[in-house]
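Hi all, posting the design record for the shared folder.

TITLE: backbone redesign
STEP: 1 of 1
STRUCTURE INPUT:
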């Protein structure tokens, strides 16, 4: 039987599974969802939901012979487990912003994190240090029970293999990307011990083999190689080849991941992350937004209709208005959890389709905002690699034509993080370079020429002015 490579994406809204053969053909898919719990600044999940969803997604793949498994997932979502691998508290997701005061305290104490960690912006409320400091102050009894501080993908891998392991990028804020070791002064300040941090390996290395217990729980055979895995953002980049081929890209989802990869030596740009050549074959400058697809979910809830209905209405609408997609704040490049969503220049009598199109334009404008930051290190590209669900829908193409003039390279595979995880599985199991796994397994692409819709530069200038006004209003 032909070798099949399985990628698992333990994402924000659920687990997605994909099985591909040695030629990159998708032979099976699986998917199972779970909720986010909490209101306001609280955004938690039950780690056992990750397990149930993974079991369900794998079962949907059917009876197949698996040669390797790669796992990626949402970061920086914190999963604390005890010595029996049981969760000791709900997972605190990346969307949770309760640790604002702890974030401010870490910034005041340590300043910028670049020198210590080899990457900046690791003291934000969404990141692991602020979360753990909040727990040490508010729920010390939880930390006292914890054996490992993991990410969702690490938790699933632990149950599969019995091995606690992670990668430096996913553990940034606890681990230096330069040394791959915990940063002692930060670890001490947030009130934990270095033993809470799992061992660190490259994402494409072998993490462990499926144990008898793991096989029984997840419906697999024993001894399947399991890769260490990466964040869903970085695995999505693997799926389009960004770590091995220079390009600019936008990966769409609940939030978007935007950036550029290159082989130039450059200093990190304030406002976005840099995955240096110490952690990736090519340097990657990128940033995650707070809410892209999530902005349409917000509008759907406000208007009591489905996201699908909104997108269909937007395809038929026209508007000069746009939206600041700051649902619960904004991450890159602003890193401000106090910002909130707002329509700009939207008439009171606007139709629901006009509102939907304004939201979609705002998402694209925030993508362009991050992309311009990545071009401070990489050369500006005349084409953008685009991936994610619904990228070919007429409404999204219309919204992007309002914002971009570049040629769009459309990656057809809708689950790029899971495909990227499958590439990590091949690399780990066979010991072959990541670029080789990409060349064998990459999906179909289509070139979409950009058709101008209005004055993109003028619209972007209006967006930047509106953002600046919002930021200043918070400072006053």
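Okay, here is what came back for every position:
SEQUENCE:
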């Amino acid at each position: 039987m032909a070798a099949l490579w399985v990628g698992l994406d333990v994402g924000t809204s659920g687990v997605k599974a994909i099985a591909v053969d040695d030629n990159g053909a998708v032979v099976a898919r699986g998917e199972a969802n779970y909720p986010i719990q909490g209101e306001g600044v609280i955004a938690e999940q039950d780690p056992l939901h990750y397990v149930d969803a993974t079991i369900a997604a794998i079962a949907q793949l059917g009876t197949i012979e698996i040669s390797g498994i790669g796992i990626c997932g949402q970061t920086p979502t914190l999963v604390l487990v005890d010595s029996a691998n049981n969760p000791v508290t709900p997972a605190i997701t990346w969307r949770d912003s309760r640790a604002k005061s702890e974030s401010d305290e870490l910034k005041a104490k340590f300043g910028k994190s670049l020198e210590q960690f080899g990457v900046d912006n690791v003291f934000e409320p969404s990141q692991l240090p602020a979360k753990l400091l909040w727990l040490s102050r508010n729920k010390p009894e939880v930390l006292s029970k914890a054996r490992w501080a993991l990410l969702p993908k690490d938790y699933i891998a632990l149950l599969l293999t019995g091995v606690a392991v992670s990668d430096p990028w996913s553990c940034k804020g606890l681990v230096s990307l330069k040394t791959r070791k915990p940063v002692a002064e930060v670890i001490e300040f947030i009130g934990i011990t270095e033993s809470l941090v799992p061992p660190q390996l490259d994402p494409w290395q072998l993490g462990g083999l499926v144990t008898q217990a793991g096989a029984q729980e997840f419906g697999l055979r024993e001894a399947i190689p399991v890769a260490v895995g990466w964040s869903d953002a970085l695995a999505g980049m693997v799926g389009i080849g960004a770590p091995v081929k220079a390009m600019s890209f936008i990966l769409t989802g609940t939030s978007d991941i935007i950036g550029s990869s290159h082989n130039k030596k450059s200093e990190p740009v304030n406002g976005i992350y840099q995955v240096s050549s110490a952690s990736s074959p090519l340097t990657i400058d990128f940033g995650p937004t707070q809410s892209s697809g999530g902005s349409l979910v917000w509008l759907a809830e406000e208007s009591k209709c489905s996201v699908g209905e909104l997108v269909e209405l937007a395809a038929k609408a026209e508007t000069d208005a746009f939206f600041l997609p700051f649902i619960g704040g904004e991450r890159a490049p602003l890193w401000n959890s106090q910002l909130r969503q707002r329509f700009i220049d939207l008439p009171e009598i606007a139709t629901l389709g006009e509102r939907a199109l304004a939201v979609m334009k705002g998402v694209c404008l925030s993508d362009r905002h991050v992309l311009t930051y990545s071009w401070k290190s990489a050369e500006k590209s005349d084409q953008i690699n685009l991936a994610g669900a619904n990228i070919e829908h007429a409404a999204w193409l219309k919204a992007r034509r309002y914002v971009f003039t570049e040629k769009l390279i459309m990656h057809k595979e809708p689950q790029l993080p899971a495909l990227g995880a499958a590439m990590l599985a091949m690399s780990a199991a066979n010991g072959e370079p990541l670029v080789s796994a990409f060349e064998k397994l990459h999906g179909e692409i289509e070139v979409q020429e950009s058709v101008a819709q209005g004055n993109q530069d003028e619209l972007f200038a209006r967006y930047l002015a509106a953002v600046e006004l919002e930021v200043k209003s918070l400072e006053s």
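COMMENT: The CA atoms of residues 188 and 194 lie 8 Å apart.
Let me know if anyone wants the other runs.
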